[in-house]
Amino acid sequence: MVAIVEEELHTDAVEVEEDHADAVEEEQQSGSAEEERHTDEAEQEDNPKSTAMRRRRTPRTARELFDALPPLPGFRVEVIEGKLIVSPSGTPEHFLTSDELAYALRPLRKERGWHGAHGPQICIDGPRYSLQPDYVLWPCDCKRWGNELLSTGVIMVTEVVSPSSVRDDREEKVRLYALGEVPVYLLIDQVAKCPSVTVYSDIEDGVYRTIDSEPMGKLLYLPDPVNFELDTSIFME
């Protein structure tokens, strides 16, 4: 019995020695792996691209997701009230309407030294919502948030209503552009039962206090800072 115990103990001792040898070997391998890991980390720290990749994280908000998106040609991408909204950029007729407005305002732009273009992004100052109007007027010194025009520096924004944007253009954006202190909001509504053109102005307490609307085809005065009489017949097909 004792012999058996001793044999068992002897056997166990051999196994312990073997385990010890295995542990040493594993420790050496672990040390080599650790050295290689430190070397890789050092190389990554020297590589700005690798550092940026390690610091990249999953977007947590609609705004962060918007900032991380690549360009999406053919789509309008906006951030409204915590929602990322992606929609088709419009029909040819839609673009023609904003193009007619751009042509009508060109002499005024040249006279005042303003810029005007289709679809630049507008950052609503404060909540940082990002909107993409159909046409924007802005001065040369307009402040920006990254590549976006800051709403408080813009002169006028224009939306051309399409069947898919009725609620946003007629309601949501009226409130958001006023919140962003855009002095003049021009709404061209060709899909209404009675097509019309409406101008919102005179902001007080974050709300447009003056609303002037004319049937499509009539003259419509665009108030300061634009100060221009617009012939809305240019939008009639």
Question: How would you portray this structure in words?
Answer:
This protein is of the alpha+beta class. 40% of the residues lie in helices and 27% in strands. The protein has a six-stranded mixed sheet, with helices on both faces. Strands 5-4-8-7 form a four-stranded mixed sheet, with no helix packed on it.
Question: Any chance you could write out the topology, listing elements then pairs?
Answer:
Elements: H1 2-46, H2 48-55, H3 62-68, E1 75-80, E2 83-88, H4 92-112, E3 115-117, E4 122-123, E5 130-131, E6 135-138, E7 144-145, E8 148-150, E9 156-160, H5 166-179, E10 184-189, E11 196-204, E12 207-215, E13 219-222, E14 228-231
Parallel strand pairs: 4-8, 9-10
Antiparallel strand pairs: 1-2, 3-6, 4-5, 6-9, 7-8, 10-11, 11-12, 13-14
Secondary-structure class? alpha+beta
Helix proportion range: 40-55%
Number of helices: 5
Describe the sheet with the most strands.
6 strands, mixed
Order of strands, main sheet, comes to 3-6-9-10-11-12
Order of helices and strands: HHHEEHEEEEEEEHEEEEE
User: How many runs of DSSP E, i.e. beta strands?
Assistant: 14
What Rg is obtained from the alpha carbons, in whole angstroms?
A: 32 Å
- Percent strand equals 25-35%
Low-confidence segments: 1-21, 48-54
- Taken from the alpha-carbon principal axes, the silhouette is globular
Terminal CA distance: 109 Å
